[in-house]
Amino acid sequence: MTNTRDTEPDRLPDPSDIAAAANILCGGGLVAFPTETVYGLGADARDGTAVAGIYALKNRPAFNPLIVHVPDREAAAELVRFPAQADALADAFWPGPFTLVLPARSDNGISSLVTAGLDTLAVRVPSHPSARALLTVAACPVAGPSANRSGRISPTRADHVRAEFGADAPLVLDGGASADGLESTIVDLSGDVPALLRPGTVARDAIEAVLGEPLSDLGEMMAGAPTAPGQLASHYAPAASIRLDVAIAQDDEGFLGFGPEMPTHNGPSFNLSVAGDLREAAANLFDALRTLDASGVPMIAVMPIPAQGVGEAINDRLRRAAAPRT
Length: 326
Ligand code: AMP
Ligand code: MG
Fold this sequence. Notes:
This protein starts with 14 loop residues before the first helix and ends with a helix. The protein has helices spanning 15-26, 48-58, 73-77, 84-93, 112-115, 129-138, 158-165, 204-211, 218-222, 278-294, 311-322, and strands at residues 31-33, 40-44, 67-69, 98-103, 120-124, 142-143, 171-172, 185-188, 195-198, 241-243, 254-257, 269-271, 299-302. By secondary structure, the protein is of the alpha/beta class. Helix 1 packs across helix 6. It binds adenosine monophosphate and magnesium ion. The site of magnesium ion (MG) has 3 residues, from loops.
């Protein structure tokens, strides 16, 4: 079970598929769509009934607010206010795997279910061509959490979404494998200091370089408080249990490794990046967890992964995948 990263380029969107998906969104339905981070489960963010459908299908706690996807910054500016730092970050990282939490405009029309009643809104401009085409044609703000049951592994391929929801699956736009493979980096600019709510493939150093100041770690602080939106300690969980920082796996375990020095293993194994490339490892992470899980092992042992750059986000996901489940 050794991997190679799926190098297939993002599939170009077929206009008739995009039109069909946009029709469903505009009619109050749900659509699963590809992005460069993971596949999203989309609904018109202004339509409370449609958004309720997201929470129901995912079995997501209603206190966990959703990210709204828009085609460009102009569309975002209709929903939220942009302080100067937000302009700088949007210039640097949009379109891309990067979400800003900003003060919401009171007249933006977004359902209060999307924000879980907060006066802030999380917005993102994705770069994936299918996502951009869908947002442009649907011409509505699209609430889009990851297209998986709450607490489980995020999908990075259309097949993952179909497997996740089975007969309940909505229309899935197939855009190939997600290039980044981890959920967007989330920065909160609504408070006194910029805070990193969730690490992602846009790494901390790059953001701090644009801001000219350090990011506070609100995300880490909130990790212990289960009522805080979206910072749940247990998340991204496979059926198997997970042990971290393991040098050599036991025979009955699955082994998730990284780098050229990964020891050989008798049971199922997956090397996130033989070359030791953290971006490749991020892109492979969720597929690797799904693959090892599907082999039926009771435990997945994970080698140490360096924490710098994108490694911070990989380690964040692995810690949550390994956390005690509630
Ligand atoms: P997901 O939809 O699974 O990618 O998760 C979205 C993340 O964005 C969660 O961690 C939410 O808590 C976070 N989020 C969304 N809206 C807000 C907001 N207004 N304030 C703080 N965090 C938010
Ligand atoms: Mg998710």
